[in-house]
Every structure is written in structure tokens, then in C-alpha cells.
């Protein structure tokens, strides 16, 4: 029986590449998204992967959404916590809304999504939880105190949850992408990308979403069961840890 994978933010950017790669690897995939219906419907038409709309910052919405996915597709074996946002600004000008939106979407979502699936994984003695953190959670970034705090929190979440579940066939790992060629990065002005971002990357280019997806497929596999609590940097050599 094919395993079931649920990818949050799985309709665009890195998440869309993950959804497609997991489907190609033989998983039954469900992709969630927040509100960009046009992108989600196009993704669904292109891939035949079912899409579900809910806000990962809401525990109740996640519980209800996951129940629907499990009814339609089956119990979740692989959860990819990929959905994320930025709301950048210097900390001395940051609003409480910028702080809480980024913390709730990038870190709160890991509780909201994982809590409803972990008991089933424990009962079935198999699970893969893969959290998409960021290089900026490892090293900090100007203008991103909120995002860096949330993404560093994702790593702590990963390590602690891995300890609690290592005996039960469940692995929990984090991936820290560097600059990846998605709309999130395309929002950075071209000149800034070319003059100051790319020169910081030893590989001298942005990463591609498929290069993150490849690592997710690797960590999700049945025979990756001894890899848990790990943080995998995929950043073209920009930050070595
Ligand atoms: P995109 O902005 O391209 O896509 C984000 C996806 O997340 C969309 O599907 C979006 O849904 C969904 N999403 C956003 N907020 C919510 C929410 N509240 N509830 C449900 N879904 C939500 O992002 P990327 O592909 O660039 O980034 C994916 C992940 O990788 C993020 O966690 C990001 O922080 C991380 N990352 C990205 C890097 C990069 O260089 N791109 C670098 C390091 C980490 P919708 O389409 O409806 O808006």
C-alpha cells in the first residue's frame, strides 16, 4: 500500500516541488495551502494531487483539515511542514502583528499540524516528520528577527520531538534551505539578488525547489529510519554547520 504524504504549502514554490517529487516516488500526496486559489487550482490540474485550503496558524483549522485529508486519502504517514511566510522589518520598527503572524505560521504550525497526526503515527509505529526551517534560523538575518526566531524554533522542535519518538519508528528531521528560486526570493529586487545575495553563495547561484524536494524524498523513505533529529543544510555552501 502506498504511503500517504501531506505537504503544507504544497501548491507553490518549494512545497509544490516536494508534492510532485513525493508523488513521483510513489506516495499518495495531499497538498495544503492558505488562500491562493488560482495557484492551487492550477497545481491540481497539472498534477492531479488533491489540494486543501486551511490556515496552518490555527490549531482547529489544522485538526479539521487533517481529518478531511485522512478521510479522503488515508492516515498521514509523512508530514512535511513546509508552509511559511516572511514579514520583514527592522526589529525596532516591527509590529506585534508582524511578530505573531510569522511565529504562528512558521513555528506554531509545527504544533498545530504535528499534534493531530502523531498519535496515529505512534499507534502504527511509523512516521516521518520533515520540517522546512531556513538558513536564517541557523545564522540569523537582518530584518528577520521574527522569521529567524521561528525557524530556529523549528530546529528545537525537531530535536526534542525526535527524542520522544525515536523508539517508535517515527523520525523527525529539519531541512534548512539557503536561497531558493521561488516567489519568496523573487520578491527580493533583482539588483539586490545579483549584487549582494548571489555573491554570498559559494555555488554562485540560487538553489532550485527540486533540490530541496530530493532531500525530502530521501528522508521520507522507509530505509531512512536511523536518521532522526538531524538538520540538513542545503545552501550552496553559504553557511556550513
Ligand atoms: P512560497 O511563498 O513560494 O509558498 C508558500 C506556500 O505556503 C504557499 O503554498 C502558501 O499558500 C503556503 N502558506 C503560507 N502561509 C500559510 C498558512 N498560514 N497556512 C497554510 N499555508 C500557508 O514559499 P517558498 O516555497 O519559498 O518557501 C517554502 C518554505 O521554505 C517556507 O517555510 C520558507 O520559510 C522556507 N524557506 C524558503 C527559502 C527560499 O529561499 N525560498 C529559504 C529558506 C527557507 P498560498 O499559495 O495559498 O499562499
UniProtKB/TrEMBL annotation:
Q: Which enzyme class?
A: oxidoreductase
Gene Ontology molecular-function annotations: acetoacetyl-CoA reductase activity
Task: Give the matching SMART domains.
Answer: PKS_KR
What keywords were assigned to this record? Oxidoreductase
Per the record, the domain of life is Bacteria
The keyword Oxidoreductase is annotated on this UniProt entry: yes
Enzyme nomenclature, EC number: 1.1.1.36
Q: What region holds the Ketoreductase domain?
A: 3-178
In Pfam terms, one family for this protein is adh_short_C2
Q: Where does this protein have coiled-coil stretches?
A: none
Q: In the UniProt record, does the keyword Chaperone occur? A: no
Family under the similarity heading: Belongs to the short-chain dehydrogenases/reductases (SDR) family.
Q: Which protein is depicted?
A: Acetoacetyl-CoA reductase
Native source organism of the sequence: Bradyrhizobium jicamae
